[in-house]
Amino acid sequence: MRFAIVFLLLLSAGMRLSAQAWERLGPEGGLVVSLGADSGGAVYLGTSDGHVFVSEDRGGHWELRGRVGLRTDAVISALAGDPRVAGRIFAAAWFREAGAGGGVFRSDDAGRSWQASGLQGEAVRALEFAASQPETLVAGTRSGVFRSAVAGKSWERISPPDDPELRNVDSIAIAPGDPGVIYAGTYHLPWKTGDGGKSWKSIGTGLIDDSDIMSLRVDAANASRLYLSACSGIYRSENRGALWTKLQGIPYAARRTQAIVQDPRNPLTLYAATTEGLWVTRDAGESWQRTTPKDWVVNAVAVLPPQDGAATRVLIGTEAQGVMASEDSGLTFARANRGFTHEVVKQLAGDVRDPRHLLLLLERDGMELVESRDAGRTWSSMLTTAIGVAKNAGWSADRIVRVYSSPWGWLARMADGTLWVYAETSHAWQIWKGSYAVPARKGKTSSGVARKAAVVPGGGLVFSSENVYLAAAEGVLRCDRAGKCEPLPAFPRATRASALWVSPEGRSVSFASDGKIGISRDAGKTAVWRDLPAGITEANWILGDSRDFSRVFLGTRRGLYFSRDATEHWTLAREGLPAARIEEGLRSSDLFIVALPEGGMYASEDGMGNWNRVDEDAERGRVTGVVETQPGQFVFGSQSEGVLLWQTPKTH
Description:
Elements: H1 2-20, E1 22-26, E2 29-30, E3 34-37, E4 43-46, E5 51-55, E6 63-67, E7 74-81, E8 89-95, E9 102-107, E10 115-116, E11 124-130, E12 133-141, E13 144-148, E14 156-157, E15 169-174, E16 182-186, E17 190-193, E18 201-202, E19 213-218, E20 226-230, E21 233-237, E22 245-246, E23 257-263, E24 266-274, E25 277-281, E26 289-290, E27 298-304, E28 313-318, E29 323-326, E30 334-335, E31 341-342, E32 345-350, E33 358-363, E34 367-372, E35 380-381, E36 400-406, E37 409-414, E38 419-423, E39 428-431, E40 435-438, E41 449-452, E42 461-463, E43 468-472, E44 475-479, E45 485-487, E46 497-502, E47 509-513, E48 516-520, E49 528-531, E50 541-544, E51 552-556, E52 559-563, E53 571-572, E54 584-587, E55 592-595, E56 601-604, E57 612-613, E58 623-630, E59 633-638, E60 642-647
């Protein structure tokens, strides 16, 4: 019994160590989908993967509190605080997977835990409390309008279920003094009910037909005045929606307005969150001023009233800059991202010459490259100019498919298969002009022609300590820094190349194509070809063992396979590892780490058994790169969580 107690204590201590070993490294900021506040003054931030961040100091600091549900594709389209209960918040969500729906979720502990609160299966796009009846919630979904009279405990449909027009609801507004007056904005014009949903009528007079109504707002001081945003601009009505007038002053290019928010203390002041910055009016829409850069895509606005002597604060949630805060009613903005790290990392790569040197390919209004030289503690933008070509011809960060660390420095693979190398001395990119001689056809006297070396779609690109190996039209090529390439005789052209691996000295090469894998032990002169595991037609990646060439690992759509006898026999790795798609794999001196697409990072000492999951819900996201920056410390790139550091319990 004493032994069992000691064992359990040690086990629980190890679990705590593992749980505490994760750290968010940034970069700070990221994609903000929605902002909301509760009656206690806390501000909530919704993301595109179901996570909710909370700030207790008006956006000064953010803390990741929890995730609504278990899915990683829940877009938090709206956040509504219960007017009666501080710390109670409702989230409207829809799932990115086609046909998966969504639902309403509720938290009673300021976002720390969440539970389903109705409309499961519905893609919920809008959610609002009735100001004069605070237990009443109204939701807009892809199939219509729903109402809860008991704060989300039960729901009823209040729009006709078979109406072909009153569906695809993107926005909801409720008259401040009458909860029976509800406005619904759809993909095709706005609708209104004056009797709580018993009857509805279209209220599109004055609007351009077929307008997508993205936001609706009833004036808090004048219930006859309404505002809406459509794909054709911003409109105002002075007679409860009977007639709409288009407001001037905002350029047509900025017509996609995600939200219109009114200052509760200054009703003439409204903020319009558009795809071309934030626009502000101080005279109820008669004139507008853009107060942010044009290239900011603003998704959400929160106006925080004065509190404890502080001035009115305006927060905006953007697509690339994260949260920005204004202390002067929206005239100027400064970053407010402390604690909010939610960048979309398309790829993380580590420098083979310096493991503390990291490179990120970020999705920020297009692609952007940022680098860190201190293992992710600080980040800075990398120059993306090009040299040696006419005005950056062919070069664009938006065209990068993947970045690589090579013995020569960073390489970028473009959508057309060409490769660009980063010149560290000039801090610019230049095209890598690799070429190889195409052998003459049989019966021809010509010695062949030169062809540019470009990576074929689906083909691999790997490095030895000196050369680059790539799958090209003529098979696997070995190229030097100067661009001189030669085909490896063991690997002729393949119709469907999928993965490639080479040992550091270049003696061992593995190539998967056309449902088979070729293994060469003589630097690509000859190879032994065998079948991939049964039912597997391609590999996501190959990892060989430089110390034991008989061991080979394959990441596939059905799990991780390994062979102990140079691919004669394959075994599916189990013992804690799901038989699911394995996208990322890294072998260090002490650990083997793999990642699943929808969350799940697993570690094993030998890669063949005893797998342990090392991430928890806060880190769960699609991994886009793994780098060991020092023994026992691994940095992960995440498509939704930014950059994460995991230290093994021993190191931690």
